[in-house]
Design a protein that fits this description.
This protein is α/β, with parallel strands linked by helices and 266 residues long. The chain has helices at residues 2-11, 15-42, 50-69, 73-89, 91-98, 106-128, 138-141, 146-176, and strands at 183-185, 196-197, 200-203, 208-213, 222-223, 238-242, 247-252, 260-265. It is elongated.
Length: 266
């Protein structure tokens, strides 16, 4: 009898609650998958505290998902707010990632943004109609409604975008083999023992050094002394700098400070 009661209660949960809970849970799990490997190398405070910030968001998403499932109105606000806050906080990274299908974070961004849109929409509607009961509104109560059609459309968009992205990524990565440079940002640079290859590059005064990013994550080439900065380099991007004075010039990736290299000008 208890099992039947549980099944009945589950069947009576409005469709909008399933969408909100599913979207928040997916986001939390996806962020964990992306962040844990990096955290094991860089530590909880790695990447200027980005790892810690992401883990905080993961906890918030899990909490919001759990209590949204119980139809707590404050959880709708928390979940939607977390989606908006994360999008704003990492807007520049999101924009750069979307421009490069070969980026290792592309799958997350292209799937998370539409998911967040659904979460925010259904959270707002569920909050607005919580007093009257969500089952009173067909588009919130059942998948056989405009709410269900919208959700299916979003899922279709994500699947299509991931498919196109995978095809484009393959083309980008194949073209990398023909790109020549003096220093290569290697694949998996964030966790590589030698992220810039070679780690020390020698050049004569007046010589130009060219870097190429062959990793599937954005990086920068940034001087320790602020002499030069490549800006964001997406997969396959190159950048060059001409050295006019002799000296030793250490540099690093602004996004991943553990990545370091050196240019020696003689």
């Amino acid at each position: 009898m208890a099992a039947e009661d549980i099944l009945t209660r589950i069947r009576n949960i409005p469709f909008s609650v399933w969408v909100i809970t599913g979207g928040l849970t997916y986001t939390a799990l996806a962020l964990l998958v992306l962040t844990i490997p990096f955290a094991l190398v860089a530590g909880i405070t790695g990447d200027y505290g980005t790892v810690l910030v992401i883990f905080i968001f993961v906890a918030v998403f899990f909490v919001a998902a759990a209590f949204s499932f119980r139809q707590k109105r404050w959880a709708y606000v928390l979940g939607a707010g977390a989606c908006v806050a994360l999008a704003i906080l990492y807007a520049s990274v999101i924009a750069t990632t979307l421009s490069n299908p070969a980026d290792s974070q592309f799958w997350l961004v292209i799937s998370a943004l539409p998911t967040w849109g659904l979460v925010v929409l259904f959270s707002g509607l569920s909050l607005a109609h919580a007093k009257g009961g969500l089952r009173a509104k067909r588009y919130l109560a059942t998948a056989q409604s405009t709410g269900g059609l919208l959700t299916v459309a979003v899922i279709g968009f994500v699947i299509g975008s991931l498919t196109v992205g995978a095809i484009s990524s393959g083309d980008i990565l194949r073209n990398l083999s023909g790109t020549k440079a003096d220093v290569t940002i290697v694949p998996g640079a964030q966790t590589a023992s030698v992220p810039f290859a070679p780690p020390v590059f020698n050049v004569t005064v007046g010589g130009t050094v060219t870097w190429v990013n062959k990793d599937t994550t954005v990086h920068t080439v940034t001087s320790n002394s602020s002499l030069f900065d490549s800006g964001t380099l997406t997969t396959g991007a190159t950048w060059s700098y001409t050295f006019t004075q002799a000296g030793t010039y250490p540099y690093y990736c602004a996004f991943h400070p553990m990545m370091v290299g050196t240019i020696v000008v003689r």
